[in-house]
Amino acid sequence: MHTDLVAALDIGGTKIAGALIDGRGGILARAQRPTPAKEDGETVMGAVSGVLGELRKASDWDAVRAVGIGSAGPVDASEGTVSPVNVAAWRGFPLVARVREATGDLPVTLVGDGVAIAAAEHWQGAARGHDNALCMVVSTGVGGGLVIGGQVHPGPTGNSGHIGHISVDLDGDLCPCGGRGCVERIASGPNIARRALADGWEPGTDGDATAAGVAAAARAGDRIARASFDRAAQALAASIAATATLVEIDIAVIGGGVAKAGDLLFTPLRAALKEYATLSFVQGLEVVPAQMGTDAGLVGAAAGALRHFGGTGA
Ligand SMILES: [Zn+2]
């Protein structure tokens, strides 16, 4: 006997991943394609169809009751469309309708990737048991999602919690989003590296000029490298404190490549948080590393779909 399953899709600028997932978050089958992000919209959709086609060949496909999509944003869950910044040909692309068509009219849910990750951390990861949480991803970009009152809070269009593009520096650098002084402009991996290089840091003999290279140099005692991480930590702390003050979260979970720097990020972040989260009701705020690995997007996308047909899920 089959248990009811969900087909989950995690759509990013680099890869399109799919999986069949059961009501406990177990992964039964997988498929993956690179995202042809520079191609036309139909070619990108072709990669999605390819992933779904592979999943349909799995013996468990007959038990699939719904499809859950987590996509790079912005998304518009109310319209069923996506416009991922890094997939230029998809602007207002009707992904929900196309996936429904490709799966024989299964119900399809759509959320932004930050919301999906929050759902995954709340269901099975570091935010489990917390009714009010902010979950963030700090990597090439900075994204996030919120859990409020025990429920994931996607917002009307599925983008709520998009903390990377709130401003923490009123006169700061222009951001590609059109804003100024955004968290992402200070704390993302490429911006940590950009600032270190601009301040005179030189990559080591391996030539690694990424945030990972900056992290290695900071650990070896390079002052400029460390200062760039401190600045990122400060931006994250200010944004987390603001969020906690607005909606009373009691935990912030941080994942993504930059969070892999560990104490190099978390120690100055916790110190800076004391400066920004000052009111009595936010002083107990915890900041912890994410626990879900690279499957967080898939598991979170599944959580949303499971809720819709009364399976379990966050
Ligand atoms: Zn921005």
From TrEMBL:
<dbReference type="InterPro" id="IPR043129">
    <property type="entry name" value="ATPase_NBD"/>
</dbReference>
<dbReference type="Pfam" id="PF00480">
    <property type="entry name" value="ROK"/>
</dbReference>
<comment type="similarity">
    <text>Belongs to the ROK (NagC/XylR) family.</text>
</comment>
<dbReference type="InterPro" id="IPR000600">
    <property type="entry name" value="ROK"/>
</dbReference>
<protein>
    <submittedName>
        <fullName>ROK family protein</fullName>
    </submittedName>
</protein>
<dbReference type="InterPro" id="IPR049874">
    <property type="entry name" value="ROK_cs"/>
</dbReference>
